[in-house]
């Protein structure tokens, strides 16, 4: 049991009794305080009474589907979401990522993998990386962008940006490495910590990040596509250089 898990509340939303029992059991043994909801209405009511630290959300729910649950959860405030999706459910998975879900696990899945994903997302949401007690990293900036890794706050030209956990991590990774070309496989490994997975996850997050930091997302100045490779982060000429502040 992880000591830091004992204070974290996780809401599991899944209508399959067997899956719910396995997921809640593994999370409870990992030290989380776990609550289960079998449908979207119950889940939203539970979150309204006491906001969870993280939601494990099945996309295929009776009545109100998981996408609508995610949309309503996010409308009432930030909360990390790990989605459970069917292997062939790519369209819904991408839509969930577009709504701001932080991670996903594909059914059938390893319960231990799910626990690790939950712990990883929670660490990031609390502003802690894998270094744990390492000295706080100085703020990063360039081109009017400022990111504070310690508080996990970001702004552009003085206006705060509403970034999800993964969007923040992706932008921080780019700001630390301006001018370099990064393949989607590299980004998935370095930012997501995955050695394999659906590369559309990276594409979706780049598109969402562009929508938030670019003046014209259709003609990006910061995150440029490198055809046949992936992406390169550039600071527009005359706006300073990327780096620590």
TrEMBL record:
Superkingdom, natural source: Bacteria
Keywords carried by this UniProt record: DNA-binding, Phosphoprotein, Transcription, Transcription regulation
Positions carrying 4-aspartylphosphate: 58
Positions of the OmpR/PhoB-type domain: 135-235
Annotation: DNA-binding region: 135-235
InterPro entries reported in the protein's UniProt record: CheY-like_superfamily, OmpR/PhoB-type_DNA-bd, Sig_transdc_resp-reg_C-effctor, Sig_transdc_resp-reg_receiver, WalR-like, WH-like_DNA-bd_sf
Database matches in SMART domains: REC, Trans_reg_C
Record domain Response regulatory: where: 9-122
Pfam families: Response_reg, Trans_reg_C
Gene3D superfamilies on file: 3.40.50.2300, 6.10.250.690, Winged helix-like DNA-binding domain superfamily/Winged helix DNA-binding domain
Positions of region (Disordered): 126-152
Protein's name according to its UniProt entry: Response regulator transcription factor
Lineage: Bacteria, Bacillati, Actinomycetota, Actinomycetes, Kitasatosporales
